[in-house]
Amino acid sequence: MQPTQTITKLINRLWHHISSRRRWQFGLLLVLMIAGSFAEIISIGAVLPFLGALTDPARIFGHSAAQPFIKILGLTSADQLPLPLTVAFSLSVLMAGAMRLILLWVSIKLSFSVGADLSNSIYSRTLYQPYAVHISRNSSEIINGVTVKTSEVIFFILIPSLTFISACVTFTAIIVALISVVPVTALAAIGGFAAIYAFIIRLNRNRLRIDSQHIARESTNVIKSLQEGLGGIRDVLIDGAQETFCANYRNADQILRRAQGNNQFISQSPRYGIEALGILLIATLAYVLTQQSGSIAKTIPILAALALGMQRLLPNLQQIYWAWSTIHGAQASLQDVLELLDQALPDHANQPAAKPLPFQHRISLKQLSFRYNQQSPWVLKNLDLTIAKGSRIGFIGATGCGKSTLLDIIMGLLQPTDGTLEIDDQLITAGNHRSWQAHIAHVPQVIFLADSSIEENIAFGVHKDRIDHDRVRQAARQAQLADIIESWPDKYLTVVGERGVQMSGGQCQRIGIARALYKQSDVIIFDESTSALDSDTEEAVMQAIEALSDDLTILIIAHRLTTLRNCTEIVELGNCGILSHVKMGATGCNISKSGSNDDQKE
Q: Is the same domain home to 277 and 395?
């Protein structure tokens, strides 16, 4: 995490991630806020003539400022004043209430729309990050950022920010109105209330900062605890480890809830004391005015205007403080969200699918070296390898020797630290790796299955309405899976369950193989993807793949040498490089250098 920035800088950074369309809508909302403040002034100002007409209509009827309206309405006596002034006051109050309702609706709608934009932007930017970025961070941080922390930005940053602006505009308008009625009292009251809130802000600033950090950190830990407990549910049940995972969840959740509760109390508690002080102020002023003037009729309109003004003023002052404290309470979460929003998008983002790179002859690795960062050891060092198109290459070696890393580099998922990856002598870079990946289908050891139908899982990443059903069935047949699927009641519409929980390990592997075959790519990479298959099924699958095309290039990592017996070359990796490279003859080859046991492990 970056060093904590001031909330002003963070909101300024957030503003740069808001689209021009949303900024224009914020501008219109500001105009609406100003209009709402005028409605508040009118409703407060209307109380003076209204109550004056009720208590002393003759005085209002004879006032010079009332003459134009009296002529327009055609009034002939003071007794006729109360009805039109009652209607005017009622309309002003209804107008102010309607403006507040409209402001609330527009503010909430705009806040949630912006929140949706930010959430989509974070998810999109995250998916477009290089593979090296994804393997270097915890998925809990991303899930928390896209869901929980983006919601916090809506509820604790955007809505409070709009509330803060609206309350400031209305607060200023009400102050102007009150000062015009009772200047000395209004200034004294406003100054006193402002001083109280300033003291509360100074008292709670540090507590809010600490709680915001707890909320940002522990909300991630809560999701992490859920993922780990539910993701390893079989081991949890077998080992009886429920209490350990519940304790991890409980510890994170308690700190999170406590910090959230602290912030809620800090943001809402001052209003009760301030409201009580406001009532005491009005009671004191009522006593003073009646003692000075000696006439309750003259005092009531002034007191009513002040009471109505305070009734509008104090909630706005509380809203300003609430918005300030709420925003500061979510400061750390906002910074985490901004770090995700600041992720750079590659040039190919949101562009049409890349046109495949020409691939007619060879894949070349030249003096290739790789390590994950400056502090980690070399995984591969000065490796040279040429893979002819149409060849079948098997990779073997001890665990951790770099087999999967090498294939990740060939697939363009990882960039070499040194050296080059070339296709037909064309260098693969960050700018053209998508064109190379258009040739590749990958079958990993652990197949990810979405909680959807078998058909959708085979055509993974293709919109449901665009799935080629014939290609799905053909891929299933080639993966030796069609007979099983077609024996089920729902056939290809059978739902596999979350992460394939309703499928056997072998069935999941074959769906992964069918997925690769559905792509009809000319380079297929198997990363121990047949390990869950029995020998007969594995042989049938490999024979089906062999029969596809002589131009199909197949790269296989396997721990059983029987899986590699149809390979044209066997590459043994170790000590950051190639230990042996054996080219197979037409009748096969005895791979004694690497061992001949069919069950040899890595």
A: no
> What is the domain extent for residue 371?
362-583
Q: How many CA atoms lie within 13 A of 463 on its CB side?
A: 2
Burial class (CB in 10 A: 0-12, 13-18, 19+), 348: middle
- Reported as a single tens digit per residue, the pLDDT across 234-251 is 677 776 878 888 888 888
Same-domain pairing of 336 and 366? no
Q: Is residue 436 situated within a structural domain?
A: yes
Q: Nearest CA to 403 among 395, 415, 411?
A: 395
Q: How far apart are CA 29 and CA 108, in angstroms?
A: 11
* Chain Cα centroid distance, residue 318: 30
366 and 330 belong to one structural domain: no
Structure tokens at 446: 């652990």
Domain co-membership, 305 together with 419: no
Q: Whole-angstrom Cα distance, residue 319 to residue 197?
A: 11
Return the pLDDT at 594: 36
Supply φ then ψ for residue 99, to 5 degrees: -65, -40
Q: Is pLDDT of 498 > 70?
A: no
Angle between helices 505-518 and 469-478 (to 10 degrees): 130
498: CATH: 3.40.50.300
Token pair of 339, please? 């770090």
C-alpha to C-alpha distance for 379 and 66, rounded to whole angstroms? 90
pLDDT at 25: 92
Residue 591 lies in a domain: no
Question: What pLDDT is recorded for position 24?
Answer: 94
Residue 482 lies in a domain: yes
Radius of gyration of the chain (CA): 36
Of the candidates 113, 223, 106, the one whose C-alpha atom is nearest the C-alpha of residue 165 is 106
* Euclidean distance between CA atoms 176 and 183, whole angstroms: 9
Give pTM, 2 decimals: 0.76
How many domains is the chain partitioned into structurally?
2
- Asked whether the predicted pLDDT for residue 86 surpasses 90, the reply is no
Rounded distance, CA 208 to CA 192, Å? Answer: 24
C-alpha 105 chain-centroid distance: 24
Is pLDDT above 80 for 518? yes
How many Å apart are CA 325 and CA 271, to the nearest integer? 13
157 and 211 fall within a common domain: yes
